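Sample entry (530 residues):
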Amino acid sequence: VAALCVCDLLVARCDANCCCDPDCGAADFGLFTTCSVPVVTGDSQLCRQKAAVYSLDVEANPPQRIFQLIDQVNPSIFCIHATNYKQALYLKSPEIPTPENFDRLLDKFGGATFSAEPDSWNLDTDAQNPPDANETYRYEYGVPVQTEDAFLRLPSPVVSSWCSDANPAGFLVNQATKCIRSVSVEKCDSIQALSMLFYINSSILAVPKSSQMVNITVQSIAVQSLNGMRTLLNSSDVLRLPMVLDGLCINAVLGVNYHITHTDTGEIIEAAAAFVLGAISKEALSVEQSFEISFTQENTQPVPLSGNPGYVVGLPVRAGFRPQGYPFPAGFLVTSGIIQSSNKHSQLTILQSTSTQDCLAAQGARAPVLFGYNMISGCKLRITAAMKCQPLAQTLLDVLKGQSFPEYVASFGNSQAQDVLDWVPITQLHVSEQMISNTLQSSCQIPVSLGIEVKWAKYGSLVNPQARIVNVTATITTTTLKQLPSGRERIIPITSSVVFTDISSPAEPGYKAWPTINIKLPFDFFYPFV
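Predicted structure, serialized as tokens:
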């Protein structure tokens, strides 16, 4: 830095007030009024560096220049400790393609992706262990599932309907795609995308940047005829490769369904693929392929989500129970937290209207509560003098609430069963069984309506808010039924309703969605990015 001088503009002449100009002497310094460049440094983003400090001693006669070489510390929390990649400091001329190196450059840069990292990093000799040598890697949501050669491909249409193999499968991102592949029956045995090997020959990395591999096994093989009929093969151990037979391309891949099993720490432990193979006639110039991928955590059964993360309008409100004792009913998923059922009747449901409108006949008919949809349903109850109060009240309660009314609902569409804090308890306001049984002989308290209010709010960024349920209240309304004279009948309407209420607070002027750090970065900190 002592040899640097940004204000030295004139050749072999002293620049006015340029204290670092080597062409200036003591007589010139005596005429200076200030130093136009008092400090000269190298890279301002370095955490520690040498700095040349220039000043004038105006009390001396004549005034003299003072030069100091000091160690300067960058106060910013964003600084560069060492510039160990020297190639980044210079402009490297790109390699010009020639007939000799064309194939090598095509292999390196001709794919959908390529590594921009240099072949070797010029590290300090004393840095034997990189900072992340002992770091534990794991898959996170949306991160591409890595394989030994690149990533797990999930072909999809990009610009047009034609298949592109450059679409990576994201971790925990369930996808289903369809696209069109150009084929030639005469060459079908050489088209990689029609072969089973193309989709299972690369092992998956258990965690990113690891040497532990997970092989993709063949779960099942279904053969589809030209008229669309499918037959499931008994054995999936033998690979069926595409081949030309009697003018047909048989064993061509028409569909692939990946199923990935992972741990709760983000490690892939199992991968399987189900194939649909079919025949392609020689007149066909293209074929439609379908691809799908799903993820399941180990020791759990797949439960359909209603959003990721926030609820999607029109999807069911997920519900469940807290475990209270064993044994659990058949069909329930028992975890360390919420018990979920794989059927819709153990989700949040209401009475489903029937054509007969008979409450006793409608018992057991339930409709799922769909997020964002206000719903109302009902039936009619014919009461006679011979009916007993307590059995009637319990029957109506079962009609309104169902056989197993849930205790919790998921606050998000993707809330996991083991995350109990992600589940909202249902506040139930209704007459207890003891109060129903202690009725007078001349009158009876029976439930006539169930009203469910779901309060939700927008959560997260203002740009992409997510729907989150914050409160659920189920209110049972009862009425007094007086004793009917012998031979008389009475018809009572029974209703169920669901109301969704948005309680989000409106954004105020100047509102910030997330807290910020009051730090001013250098204007060129993110160079070359804006």
